[in-house]
């Protein structure tokens, strides 16, 4: 019976018709079909497009060309240095050219190690501030400056203020160019959402800004709960990212990428891809407002907030480290390198952290203490707290509970031991961060009237930029009418 069924199945008319249809010859294959479409013109245009695409430079070819240009420049610099040492121009033989290339290779390796944070430049001990040259005004604002940032080559700077003014200025000439906000209809076409809660119109109040490593994009955030993206070449508005439920208080680009991190009063960190204009992810962990954010080359984000914690998010591993501070609120924080952190608190102290420890390894108290009796305190390294932390000056002559002594800004010169901090007590202080001894030593105390709401070092450590205002960055709980709203620059000598 099974054989009969198999035989009957093999003669099933359904399969027979199917096979017959497959074997049916198509007699119309050779017939021409009339059409208005010109086949030769199509393939000719396709070949032309293919030739144009082949002529376009690919990403790999562009990187190779940039690397070759950079290598040629480094070789020219090495050649000029050698000619300067020899005093005359000489022709090189193969041995000298090989030695020069080895020096170039060593220089490139050193630069790469410094960029990756493996090597730290010891420049703090060599930094000098001229007595005659203090801070000078570089750009003026009508309202308090809330944030400053520098381009990767230190040639341009950016600043924002409470009245929504965003300015771009040249570091050398001081020439300023203002960013113009587009109309509401244009902003809505770029992604802006309607005001929430009781607000009747969008606020232009800017709290933070950050510039990408390639210098193409500028990101700003403020009270309107949006992250705005600008083109630095045309100063035009490109995109508005909605999503935060509170003011955007801090922004930072990941070095070498178009990846942007935004921190907000809604206690979250959001990740954006500026190149693709897309939202990527949201990070949770803080129990109160996030006030500060920083990121290096690794996909790790450092945040500080009013919940007395500083948190290090490892985005790729989907984990985080929580660091607890003794202060009631951490006002600011930044990376020193991949293993060390620096923060400033509202009790006037500066904390040095190690990523392997959840508590500060060193606390510098009264970093910007007010002089009550107009007495200048002396730094006493011998005065130690029971936990080994340094207590600055004579405590009975100072007080740090005032808003004027809150450490509102800290920054570190990239891949170096040089740091700076600012407050509202009338000065910016430079520090040397000692990694081996795990302490912070004072270098210079430079007068600057007003609330120092933001600081930025040049990558070359040739100058320091400060954003100054008559009021603190995030509120109006203090005011100094003598201060000049704007951006000030401090030249440094190495």
Commentary on this structure:
It comes from Clitoria ternatea. The chain has 494 residues and is α+β, with helices and mostly antiparallel strands. It has a domain at 124-367 and 399-491: Methylamine Dehydrogenase, Chain H (7 Propeller), CATH 2.130.10. Helices cover 19% and strands 34% of the residues. It is built from 6 helices and 31 strands. The protein has helices at 2-10, 13-23, 39-55, 59-86, 94-116, 184-189; strands spanning 136-140, 145-150, 156-161, 166-170, 176-179, 206-211, 217-222, 227-231, 236-241, 248-253, 259-264, 269-273, 278-283, 290-295, 300-305, 309-314, 319-324, 330-335, 340-345, 350-354, 362-365, 370-371, 390-391, 398-399, 409-412, 418-422, 427-434, 439-447, 451-457, 463-469, 486-491. A 5-stranded mixed sheet has the order 18-19-20-21-23, with no helix packed on it. Strands 1-31-30-29 form a 4-stranded antiparallel sheet, with no helix packed on it. A 4-stranded antiparallel sheet has the order 2-3-4-5, with no helix packed on it. A hairpin with a 4-residue loop joins strand 27 (427-434) and strand 28 (439-447). Helix 4 (59-86) packs across helix 5. The protein is globular and about 70 Å long.
Summarize this, please?
This protein has 494 residues and is α+β, with helices and mostly antiparallel strands. The chain has 6 helices and 31 strands.
List descriptors.
single chain; 494 residues; alpha+beta; Methylamine Dehydrogenase, Chain H
Any chance you could write out the topology, listing elements then pairs?
Blueprint lengths: L1 H9 L2 H11 L15 H17 L3 H28 L7 H23 L19 E5 L4 E6 L5 E6 L4 E5 L5 E4 L4 H6 L16 E6 L5 E6 L4 E5 L4 E6 L6 E6 L5 E6 L4 E5 L4 E6 L6 E6 L4 E6 L3 E6 L4 E6 L5 E6 L4 E6 L4 E5 L7 E4 L4 E2 L18 E2 L6 E2 L9 E4 L5 E5 L4 E8 L4 E9 L3 E7 L5 E7 L16 E6 L3
Parallel strand pairs: 21-23
Antiparallel strand pairs: 1-31, 2-3, 3-4, 4-5, 6-7, 7-8, 8-9, 10-11, 11-12, 12-13, 14-15, 15-16, 16-17, 18-19, 19-20, 20-21, 22-24, 25-26, 26-27, 27-28, 29-30, 30-31
Helix pairs in contact: 4-5
Main location: nucleus
Keywords: Nucleus, Repeat, Ribonucleoprotein, RNA-binding, rRNA processing, WD repeat
Protein name: U3 snoRNP-associated protein-like EMB2271
């Amino acid at each position: 019976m099974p054989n009969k069924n198999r035989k009957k199945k093999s003669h099933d008319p359904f399969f027979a018709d199917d096979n017959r249809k497959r074997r049916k010859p198509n007699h119309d294959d050779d017939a021409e079909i009339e059409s208005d479409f010109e086949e030769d013109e199509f393939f000719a245009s396709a070949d032309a497009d293919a030739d144009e695409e082949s002529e376009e430079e690919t990403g790999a070819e562009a990187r190779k060309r940039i690397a070759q240009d950079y290598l040629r420049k480094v070789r020219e610099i090495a050649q000029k240095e050698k000619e300067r040492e020899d005093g005359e121009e000489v022709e090189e033989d193969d041995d000298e050219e090989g030695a020069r290339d080895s020096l170039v290779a060593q220089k490139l390796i050193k630069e790469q190690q410094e960029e990756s944070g493996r090597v730290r430049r010891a420049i703090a001990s060599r930094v000098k501030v001229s007595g005659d040259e203090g801070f000078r005004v570089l750009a003026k604002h009508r309202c308090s400056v809330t944030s400053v940032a520098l381009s990767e080559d230190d040639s341009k700077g950016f600043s924002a203020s409470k009245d929504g003014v965003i300015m771009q200025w040249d570091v050398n000439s001081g020439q300023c160019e203002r960013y113009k906000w587009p109309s509401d209809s244009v902003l809505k076409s770029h992604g802006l959402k309607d005001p929430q809660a009781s607000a009747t119109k969008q606020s232009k109040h800017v709290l933070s800004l950050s510039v990408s490593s390639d210098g193409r994009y500028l990101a700003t955030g403020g009270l309107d709960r949006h992250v705005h993206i600008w083109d630095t070449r045309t100063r035009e508005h490109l995109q508005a990212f909605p999503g935060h439920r509170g003011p955007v208080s801090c922004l930072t680009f990941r070095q070498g990428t178009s990846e942007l991190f935004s921190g907000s009063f809604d206690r979250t960190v959001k990740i954006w891809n500026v190149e693709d204009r897309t939202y990527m992810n949201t990070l949770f962990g803080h129990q109160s407002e996030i006030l500060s954010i920083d990121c290096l080359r690794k996909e790790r984000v450092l945040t500080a907030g009013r919940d007395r914690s500083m948190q290090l998010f490892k985005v790729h591993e989907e984990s985080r480290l929580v660091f607890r501070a003794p202060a009631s609120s951490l006002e600011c924080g930044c990376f020193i390198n991949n293993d060390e952190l620096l923060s400033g608190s509202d009790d006037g102290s500066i904390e040095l952290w190690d990523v392997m420890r959840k508590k500060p390894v060193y606390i510098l108290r009264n970093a910007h203490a007010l002089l009550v009796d107009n007495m200048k305190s002396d730094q006493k390294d011998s005065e130690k707290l029971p936990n080994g932390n340094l207590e600055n000056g004579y405590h009975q002559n100072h007080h740090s509970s005032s808003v004027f002594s809150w450490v509102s800004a800290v920054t570190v010169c990239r891949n170096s031991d040089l740091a700076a901090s600012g407050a509202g007590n009338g000065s910016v202080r430079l520090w040397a961060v000692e990694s081996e001894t795990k302490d912070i030593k004072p270098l210079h105390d430079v007068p600057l009237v007003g609330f120092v709401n933001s600081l930025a070092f040049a990558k070359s450590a040739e100058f320091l930029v400060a954003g100054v205002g008559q009021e603190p960055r995030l509120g109006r709980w203090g005011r100094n009418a003598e201060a000049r709203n704007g951006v000030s620059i401090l030249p440094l000598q190495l």
